[in-house]
Request: fold
Amino acid sequence: MNQERSHALFSRARELIPGGVNSPVRAFKSVGGEPFFAQRAEGAYLIDVDGNRYVDYVGSWGPMIAGHAHPQVLAAVTDTMVNGLSFGVPNPLEVTMAERIAQIVPSCEMVRMVNSGTEATLSAIRVARGATGRSRIVKFEGCYHGHGDSFLVKAGSGVMTLGLPNSPGVPSALADLTSTIAYNDFDAATKLFDEVGSEIAGLIIEPIVGNANCILPRDGYLQHLRELCTKHGALLIFDEVMTGFRVALGGAQARYGITPDLSTFGKIIGGGMPVGAYGGRRDLMEQVAPSGPIYQAGTLSGNPVAMAAGLATLDLIQVPGFHTELERRTHVLCDGLEAAARDAGIAFTTTRAPGMFGLYFREGPVETFEDAKASDTARFNRFFHAMLGRGVYLAPSAFEAGFLSSAHGEAEIAHTVEAARASFAEIA
Ligand code: PMP
Reply:
Protein backbone atom coordinates (compact mmCIF):
# COMPACT_ATOMS: atom_id res chain seq x y z
CA MET A 1 0.00 0.00 0.00
CA ASN A 2 1.41 3.37 -1.00
CA GLN A 3 1.45 5.81 1.91
CA GLU A 4 4.07 8.23 0.60
CA ARG A 5 2.09 11.39 1.20
CA SER A 6 1.09 10.33 4.71
CA HIS A 7 4.72 9.56 5.45
CA ALA A 8 5.84 12.99 4.23
CA LEU A 9 3.15 14.72 6.29
CA PHE A 10 4.05 12.75 9.40
CA SER A 11 7.70 13.78 9.03
CA ARG A 12 6.67 17.43 8.87
CA ALA A 13 4.20 17.03 11.73
CA ARG A 14 6.76 15.47 14.05
CA GLU A 15 8.93 18.59 13.79
CA LEU A 16 6.28 20.81 15.30
CA ILE A 17 3.55 18.77 16.96
CA PRO A 18 4.44 16.50 19.90
CA GLY A 19 4.64 13.00 18.43
CA GLY A 20 3.25 14.40 15.19
CA VAL A 21 -0.34 14.27 16.43
CA ASN A 22 -2.84 16.37 18.35
CA SER A 23 -4.07 13.41 20.41
CA PRO A 24 -1.70 10.60 21.44
CA VAL A 25 -3.45 7.42 20.28
CA ARG A 26 -3.45 8.71 16.69
CA ALA A 27 0.31 8.21 16.49
CA PHE A 28 0.03 4.38 16.22
CA LYS A 29 2.60 4.04 19.00
CA SER A 30 1.01 0.95 20.44
CA VAL A 31 0.49 -0.90 17.13
CA GLY A 32 3.72 0.38 15.58
CA GLY A 33 4.23 2.00 12.20
CA GLU A 34 2.94 5.40 11.18
CA PRO A 35 -0.55 6.85 10.97
CA PHE A 36 -2.19 7.66 7.68
CA PHE A 37 -3.53 11.15 7.09
CA ALA A 38 -7.16 11.47 6.05
CA GLN A 39 -8.08 13.46 2.99
CA ARG A 40 -11.81 12.91 3.34
CA ALA A 41 -14.40 10.44 4.55
CA GLU A 42 -17.77 9.19 3.32
CA GLY A 43 -20.20 6.75 4.90
CA ALA A 44 -18.25 3.85 6.40
CA TYR A 45 -15.00 4.85 4.65
CA LEU A 46 -11.93 6.94 5.32
CA ILE A 47 -9.86 7.96 2.28
CA ASP A 48 -6.26 8.89 2.93
CA VAL A 49 -4.07 11.47 1.22
CA ASP A 50 -2.57 8.73 -0.98
CA GLY A 51 -6.00 7.66 -2.18
CA ASN A 52 -6.28 4.45 -0.10
CA ARG A 53 -9.78 3.58 1.13
CA TYR A 54 -10.45 1.96 4.49
CA VAL A 55 -13.60 0.62 6.09
CA ASP A 56 -13.44 2.70 9.25
CA TYR A 57 -14.24 1.11 12.63
CA VAL A 58 -13.05 4.10 14.61
CA GLY A 59 -15.58 6.65 13.37
CA SER A 60 -13.59 9.58 14.74
CA TRP A 61 -13.62 7.72 18.08
CA GLY A 62 -17.39 7.64 18.28
CA PRO A 63 -19.18 10.65 16.84
CA MET A 64 -19.80 9.29 13.35
CA ILE A 65 -22.64 6.92 14.25
CA ALA A 66 -24.56 7.92 11.12
CA GLY A 67 -21.51 7.51 8.90
CA HIS A 68 -19.06 10.12 7.68
CA ALA A 69 -20.16 13.22 5.80
CA HIS A 70 -23.83 12.35 6.03
CA PRO A 71 -25.67 14.68 3.60
CA GLN A 72 -28.26 15.70 6.22
CA VAL A 73 -25.58 16.62 8.74
CA LEU A 74 -23.54 18.52 6.17
CA ALA A 75 -26.65 20.39 5.03
CA ALA A 76 -27.47 21.39 8.61
CA VAL A 77 -23.93 22.69 9.05
CA THR A 78 -23.82 24.65 5.80
CA ASP A 79 -27.31 26.09 6.35
CA THR A 80 -26.31 27.26 9.82
CA MET A 81 -22.82 28.54 9.15
CA VAL A 82 -23.88 31.15 6.59
CA ASN A 83 -25.49 33.04 9.48
CA GLY A 84 -22.17 33.33 11.29
CA LEU A 85 -19.86 30.98 13.13
CA SER A 86 -20.15 32.16 16.73
CA PHE A 87 -22.17 34.88 18.44
CA GLY A 88 -21.15 35.01 22.07
CA VAL A 89 -24.81 35.52 22.99
CA PRO A 90 -27.38 32.75 23.32
CA ASN A 91 -28.70 31.19 20.11
CA PRO A 92 -31.91 29.20 19.54
CA LEU A 93 -30.16 25.93 18.72
CA GLU A 94 -28.77 25.72 22.27
CA VAL A 95 -32.31 25.64 23.61
CA THR A 96 -33.36 23.00 21.10
CA MET A 97 -30.32 20.92 22.04
CA ALA A 98 -31.04 21.16 25.78
CA GLU A 99 -34.66 20.19 25.19
CA ARG A 100 -33.61 17.28 23.00
CA ILE A 101 -31.10 15.89 25.50
CA ALA A 102 -33.58 16.22 28.37
CA GLN A 103 -36.22 14.43 26.31
CA ILE A 104 -33.91 11.56 25.30
CA VAL A 105 -32.17 11.21 28.69
CA PRO A 106 -34.74 11.83 31.44
CA SER A 107 -32.12 11.87 34.25
CA CYS A 108 -30.83 15.09 32.67
CA GLU A 109 -33.35 17.56 34.01
CA MET A 110 -30.94 20.35 33.12
CA VAL A 111 -27.87 20.38 30.87
CA ARG A 112 -24.89 22.57 30.12
CA MET A 113 -23.08 22.40 26.78
CA VAL A 114 -19.27 22.39 26.66
CA ASN A 115 -16.70 21.70 23.93
CA SER A 116 -15.31 18.25 24.67
CA GLY A 117 -15.78 15.15 26.77
CA THR A 118 -12.90 16.26 28.96
CA GLU A 119 -14.64 19.52 29.80
CA ALA A 120 -17.84 17.63 30.52
CA THR A 121 -16.25 15.25 33.04
CA LEU A 122 -14.15 17.81 34.83
CA SER A 123 -17.18 20.07 35.13
CA ALA A 124 -19.28 17.18 36.44
CA ILE A 125 -16.84 16.40 39.24
CA ARG A 126 -16.64 20.06 40.13
CA VAL A 127 -20.41 20.00 40.56
CA ALA A 128 -20.15 16.81 42.60
CA ARG A 129 -17.52 18.36 44.86
CA GLY A 130 -19.28 21.71 45.09
CA ALA A 131 -22.68 20.22 45.82
CA THR A 132 -21.55 17.67 48.41
CA GLY A 133 -18.79 19.70 50.04
CA ARG A 134 -16.60 16.59 49.77
CA SER A 135 -13.36 16.11 47.83
CA ARG A 136 -12.84 12.41 47.04
CA ILE A 137 -13.60 11.01 43.61
CA VAL A 138 -13.91 7.31 42.83
CA LYS A 139 -13.04 5.95 39.42
CA PHE A 140 -12.29 2.54 37.94
CA GLU A 141 -9.09 1.00 36.61
CA GLY A 142 -9.10 1.18 32.84
CA CYS A 143 -11.78 3.87 32.65
CA TYR A 144 -10.83 7.06 30.83
CA HIS A 145 -12.67 10.28 31.46
CA GLY A 146 -10.58 12.72 29.46
CA HIS A 147 -7.33 14.31 30.54
CA GLY A 148 -8.49 16.29 33.58
CA ASP A 149 -5.99 16.10 36.45
CA SER A 150 -8.23 14.09 38.74
CA PHE A 151 -8.80 11.41 36.11
CA LEU A 152 -5.27 10.60 35.00
CA VAL A 153 -4.97 7.81 37.49
CA LYS A 154 -5.05 4.28 36.04
CA ALA A 155 -6.80 5.76 33.05
CA GLY A 156 -7.11 3.14 30.37
CA SER A 157 -6.24 2.95 26.70
CA GLY A 158 -4.25 6.02 25.70
CA VAL A 159 -2.36 6.35 28.94
CA MET A 160 -1.97 2.62 29.32
CA THR A 161 -0.74 1.77 25.85
CA LEU A 162 1.96 4.38 26.32
CA GLY A 163 2.92 2.74 29.59
CA LEU A 164 2.12 5.81 31.65
CA PRO A 165 0.10 4.67 34.66
CA ASN A 166 -0.24 8.24 35.82
CA SER A 167 0.85 11.50 34.27
CA PRO A 168 3.65 13.80 35.39
CA GLY A 169 2.15 17.22 35.94
CA VAL A 170 -0.70 15.96 38.07
CA PRO A 171 0.02 17.10 41.63
CA SER A 172 -0.01 14.16 44.00
CA ALA A 173 -2.12 16.22 46.41
CA LEU A 174 -4.87 16.07 43.80
CA ALA A 175 -4.27 12.52 42.56
CA ASP A 176 -4.49 11.38 46.19
CA LEU A 177 -8.12 12.47 46.16
CA THR A 178 -8.92 9.96 43.41
CA SER A 179 -9.58 6.42 44.60
CA THR A 180 -9.40 3.75 41.94
CA ILE A 181 -11.06 0.36 42.17
CA ALA A 182 -11.55 -2.63 39.89
CA TYR A 183 -14.54 -2.50 37.52
CA ASN A 184 -17.11 -5.25 38.00
CA ASP A 185 -15.78 -6.10 41.48
CA PHE A 186 -18.80 -5.77 43.80
CA ASP A 187 -16.83 -6.23 47.00
CA ALA A 188 -14.11 -3.72 46.15
CA ALA A 189 -16.75 -1.01 45.82
CA THR A 190 -18.53 -1.99 49.03
CA LYS A 191 -15.24 -2.03 50.91
CA LEU A 192 -14.13 1.37 49.65
CA PHE A 193 -17.45 2.98 50.57
CA ASP A 194 -17.34 1.33 53.99
CA GLU A 195 -13.90 2.85 54.55
CA VAL A 196 -14.19 6.35 53.10
CA GLY A 197 -17.86 6.68 52.03
CA SER A 198 -18.37 9.93 53.93
CA GLU A 199 -15.48 11.56 51.97
CA ILE A 200 -16.76 10.60 48.53
CA ALA A 201 -18.20 13.43 46.43
CA GLY A 202 -18.86 11.29 43.39
CA LEU A 203 -18.20 8.01 41.68
CA ILE A 204 -17.59 8.31 37.95
CA ILE A 205 -17.83 5.33 35.65
CA GLU A 206 -17.97 4.36 32.01
CA PRO A 207 -21.02 2.12 32.40
CA ILE A 208 -19.63 0.05 29.54
CA VAL A 209 -15.86 0.45 29.55
CA GLY A 210 -14.82 1.52 26.06
CA ASN A 211 -11.33 2.61 27.07
CA ALA A 212 -10.13 -0.81 28.19
CA ASN A 213 -11.41 -2.42 25.00
CA CYS A 214 -15.13 -3.05 25.63
CA ILE A 215 -16.12 -4.49 29.00
CA LEU A 216 -19.77 -4.91 29.89
CA PRO A 217 -21.17 -4.55 33.42
CA ARG A 218 -21.98 -7.77 35.28
CA ASP A 219 -25.65 -8.28 36.14
CA GLY A 220 -26.60 -5.96 38.96
CA TYR A 221 -23.23 -4.21 39.10
CA LEU A 222 -24.40 -0.72 38.12
CA GLN A 223 -27.38 -1.09 40.47
CA HIS A 224 -24.95 -2.01 43.26
CA LEU A 225 -23.01 1.20 42.63
CA ARG A 226 -26.25 3.19 42.53
CA GLU A 227 -27.20 1.81 45.94
CA LEU A 228 -23.77 2.47 47.46
CA CYS A 229 -23.79 6.08 46.27
CA THR A 230 -27.29 6.66 47.59
CA LYS A 231 -26.47 5.09 50.93
CA HIS A 232 -23.32 7.14 51.43
CA GLY A 233 -24.54 10.45 50.00
CA ALA A 234 -22.17 10.37 47.03
CA LEU A 235 -23.21 11.26 43.49
CA LEU A 236 -23.28 8.62 40.78
CA ILE A 237 -21.84 10.04 37.56
CA PHE A 238 -22.25 8.09 34.33
CA ASP A 239 -19.65 9.07 31.78
CA GLU A 240 -21.63 8.40 28.62
CA VAL A 241 -19.24 10.22 26.29
CA MET A 242 -18.88 6.94 24.37
CA THR A 243 -22.06 5.05 25.25
CA GLY A 244 -24.48 7.97 25.10
CA PHE A 245 -26.94 7.80 22.17
CA ARG A 246 -25.08 4.69 20.98
CA VAL A 247 -25.77 1.57 23.07
CA ALA A 248 -29.40 2.75 23.19
CA LEU A 249 -30.90 6.08 22.21
CA GLY A 250 -30.94 6.94 25.93
CA GLY A 251 -27.44 5.52 26.44
CA ALA A 252 -26.27 2.91 28.93
CA GLN A 253 -28.54 4.33 31.62
CA ALA A 254 -31.53 3.45 29.44
CA ARG A 255 -30.10 0.06 28.48
CA TYR A 256 -29.50 -0.95 32.10
CA GLY A 257 -32.32 1.01 33.76
CA ILE A 258 -30.15 3.03 36.15
CA THR A 259 -30.69 6.69 37.04
CA PRO A 260 -27.39 8.49 37.67
CA ASP A 261 -27.28 11.86 39.42
CA LEU A 262 -25.08 13.40 36.74
CA SER A 263 -24.15 12.31 33.21
CA THR A 264 -21.51 13.42 30.75
CA PHE A 265 -21.73 13.33 26.97
CA GLY A 266 -19.66 14.15 23.92
CA LYS A 267 -18.91 12.66 20.53
CA ILE A 268 -22.35 11.88 19.00
CA ILE A 269 -24.08 15.04 20.25
CA GLY A 270 -21.58 17.04 18.21
CA GLY A 271 -21.96 14.92 15.08
CA GLY A 272 -18.22 15.36 14.50
CA MET A 273 -17.92 18.94 15.74
CA PRO A 274 -16.23 19.68 19.10
CA VAL A 275 -19.04 19.28 21.63
CA GLY A 276 -19.58 17.89 25.11
CA ALA A 277 -22.34 18.23 27.67
CA TYR A 278 -23.06 17.46 31.28
CA GLY A 279 -26.40 17.30 32.96
CA GLY A 280 -28.43 15.73 35.70
CA ARG A 281 -30.65 16.46 38.65
CA ARG A 282 -32.15 19.93 38.67
CA ASP A 283 -31.12 20.66 42.28
CA LEU A 284 -27.50 19.91 41.35
CA MET A 285 -27.39 21.69 38.01
CA GLU A 286 -29.00 24.79 39.50
CA GLN A 287 -25.85 25.20 41.57
CA VAL A 288 -23.87 25.91 38.37
CA ALA A 289 -23.07 29.57 37.56
CA PRO A 290 -24.79 31.89 36.96
CA SER A 291 -27.78 30.35 38.73
CA GLY A 292 -25.48 29.07 41.48
CA PRO A 293 -21.90 29.49 42.74
CA ILE A 294 -20.12 26.56 41.02
CA TYR A 295 -18.20 28.19 38.20
CA GLN A 296 -17.95 26.77 34.70
CA ALA A 297 -17.89 28.65 31.39
CA GLY A 298 -16.89 28.49 27.72
CA THR A 299 -16.33 31.08 24.96
CA LEU A 300 -17.52 28.73 22.24
CA SER A 301 -19.92 26.58 24.28
CA GLY A 302 -23.24 25.98 22.53
CA ASN A 303 -21.68 26.98 19.22
CA PRO A 304 -24.47 27.19 16.63
CA VAL A 305 -22.70 25.18 13.92
CA ALA A 306 -21.79 22.45 16.39
CA MET A 307 -25.35 22.37 17.73
CA ALA A 308 -26.67 22.04 14.17
CA ALA A 309 -24.37 19.08 13.43
CA GLY A 310 -25.35 17.40 16.68
CA LEU A 311 -29.07 17.94 16.25
CA ALA A 312 -28.97 16.62 12.68
CA THR A 313 -27.14 13.52 13.91
CA LEU A 314 -29.71 13.02 16.68
CA ASP A 315 -32.49 13.33 14.07
CA LEU A 316 -30.91 10.46 12.14
CA ILE A 317 -30.57 8.14 15.12
CA GLN A 318 -33.99 8.89 16.59
CA VAL A 319 -35.58 6.99 13.72
CA PRO A 320 -37.38 3.99 15.30
CA GLY A 321 -35.38 0.78 15.02
CA PHE A 322 -32.05 2.54 14.49
CA HIS A 323 -30.33 0.99 17.50
CA THR A 324 -31.86 -2.46 17.01
CA GLU A 325 -30.43 -2.56 13.51
CA LEU A 326 -27.07 -1.24 14.73
CA GLU A 327 -27.00 -4.00 17.34
CA ARG A 328 -27.87 -6.65 14.75
CA ARG A 329 -25.02 -5.54 12.52
CA THR A 330 -22.62 -5.51 15.45
CA HIS A 331 -23.50 -9.16 16.05
CA VAL A 332 -23.10 -10.06 12.38
CA LEU A 333 -19.64 -8.50 12.37
CA CYS A 334 -18.48 -10.03 15.66
CA ASP A 335 -19.93 -13.48 14.88
CA GLY A 336 -18.14 -13.35 11.52
CA LEU A 337 -14.82 -12.41 13.11
CA GLU A 338 -15.11 -15.14 15.74
CA ALA A 339 -15.93 -17.77 13.11
CA ALA A 340 -12.96 -16.69 10.97
CA ALA A 341 -10.61 -16.91 13.97
CA ARG A 342 -11.96 -20.32 14.92
CA ASP A 343 -11.34 -21.62 11.40
CA ALA A 344 -7.77 -20.35 11.60
CA GLY A 345 -7.28 -21.97 15.02
CA ILE A 346 -6.64 -18.66 16.75
CA ALA A 347 -7.69 -17.98 20.35
CA PHE A 348 -9.97 -15.00 19.94
CA THR A 349 -13.16 -13.56 21.37
CA THR A 350 -15.30 -10.45 21.14
CA THR A 351 -17.48 -8.38 23.45
CA ARG A 352 -20.38 -6.37 22.09
CA ALA A 353 -22.82 -3.60 22.81
CA PRO A 354 -24.94 -1.97 20.12
CA GLY A 355 -22.57 -0.18 17.74
CA MET A 356 -19.56 -0.94 19.91
CA PHE A 357 -17.26 -3.96 20.23
CA GLY A 358 -14.03 -5.30 21.71
CA LEU A 359 -11.58 -7.71 20.07
CA TYR A 360 -9.35 -9.96 22.19
CA PHE A 361 -6.67 -12.44 21.26
CA ARG A 362 -7.55 -14.86 24.06
CA GLU A 363 -10.44 -17.16 24.94
CA GLY A 364 -13.52 -15.56 26.52
CA PRO A 365 -15.19 -14.51 28.61
CA VAL A 366 -13.77 -11.04 29.22
CA GLU A 367 -15.42 -9.40 32.23
CA THR A 368 -12.68 -7.46 33.99
CA PHE A 369 -9.81 -5.16 33.18
CA GLU A 370 -7.42 -8.00 34.12
CA ASP A 371 -9.18 -10.23 31.57
CA ALA A 372 -8.83 -7.52 28.93
CA LYS A 373 -5.14 -7.01 29.70
CA ALA A 374 -4.52 -10.74 29.22
CA SER A 375 -5.23 -10.36 25.50
CA ASP A 376 -2.20 -11.09 23.30
CA THR A 377 -1.46 -7.52 22.27
CA ALA A 378 1.49 -8.44 20.04
CA ARG A 379 -0.90 -10.57 18.05
CA PHE A 380 -3.47 -7.80 17.96
CA ASN A 381 -0.84 -5.45 16.56
CA ARG A 382 -0.01 -7.85 13.73
CA PHE A 383 -3.71 -8.33 13.06
CA PHE A 384 -4.24 -4.57 13.00
CA HIS A 385 -1.61 -4.13 10.27
CA ALA A 386 -2.81 -7.17 8.32
CA MET A 387 -6.31 -5.67 8.30
CA LEU A 388 -5.08 -2.18 7.43
CA GLY A 389 -3.26 -3.62 4.43
CA ARG A 390 -6.60 -5.08 3.33
CA GLY A 391 -8.43 -1.77 3.66
CA VAL A 392 -9.92 -2.17 7.12
CA TYR A 393 -9.06 0.39 9.78
CA LEU A 394 -9.46 -0.88 13.34
CA ALA A 395 -8.75 1.19 16.44
CA PRO A 396 -4.93 1.47 16.62
CA SER A 397 -4.75 0.03 20.13
CA ALA A 398 -5.65 -3.32 21.66
CA PHE A 399 -7.44 -1.38 24.41
CA GLU A 400 -9.87 0.75 22.44
CA ALA A 401 -13.41 -0.23 21.56
CA GLY A 402 -14.37 -0.39 17.90
CA PHE A 403 -17.41 1.49 16.59
CA LEU A 404 -19.96 0.69 13.93
CA SER A 405 -22.15 3.20 12.14
CA SER A 406 -25.40 2.87 10.24
CA ALA A 407 -23.30 3.23 7.07
CA HIS A 408 -21.62 -0.11 7.76
CA GLY A 409 -23.84 -2.25 5.56
CA GLU A 410 -23.74 -5.91 4.54
CA ALA A 411 -21.04 -5.24 1.93
CA GLU A 412 -18.67 -3.51 4.35
CA ILE A 413 -19.15 -6.15 7.00
CA ALA A 414 -18.65 -8.99 4.50
CA HIS A 415 -15.47 -7.31 3.24
CA THR A 416 -14.25 -6.97 6.84
CA VAL A 417 -14.86 -10.63 7.65
CA GLU A 418 -13.09 -11.72 4.43
CA ALA A 419 -10.15 -9.48 5.29
CA ALA A 420 -10.11 -11.01 8.77
CA ARG A 421 -10.02 -14.55 7.35
CA ALA A 422 -6.93 -13.69 5.32
CA SER A 423 -5.40 -11.75 8.21
CA PHE A 424 -5.93 -14.51 10.77
CA ALA A 425 -4.31 -16.96 8.34
CA GLU A 426 -1.40 -14.55 7.89
CA ILE A 427 -0.74 -14.18 11.63
CA ALA A 428 -1.57 -17.78 12.69
N1 PMP B 1 -14.95 10.09 28.57
C1 PMP B 1 -14.91 9.00 27.81
C2 PMP B 1 -15.66 7.78 28.23
C3 PMP B 1 -14.19 9.02 26.62
O1 PMP B 1 -14.15 7.92 25.86
C4 PMP B 1 -13.51 10.20 26.23
C5 PMP B 1 -12.71 10.29 24.96
N2 PMP B 1 -12.47 9.15 24.26
C6 PMP B 1 -13.58 11.29 27.08
C7 PMP B 1 -14.33 11.21 28.24
C8 PMP B 1 -12.89 12.57 26.74
O2 PMP B 1 -13.49 13.18 25.66
P1 PMP B 1 -12.66 14.22 24.76
O3 PMP B 1 -11.62 13.44 24.06
O4 PMP B 1 -13.71 14.79 23.84
O5 PMP B 1 -12.11 15.25 25.66
Observations:
- Residues 239 and 264 are 5 Å apart (CA to CA).
- The chain is about 40% helix and 15% strand.
- The domain at 4-69+320-427 is CATH 3.90.1150.10 (Aspartate Aminotransferase, domain 1).
- The chain has a mean pLDDT of 96.
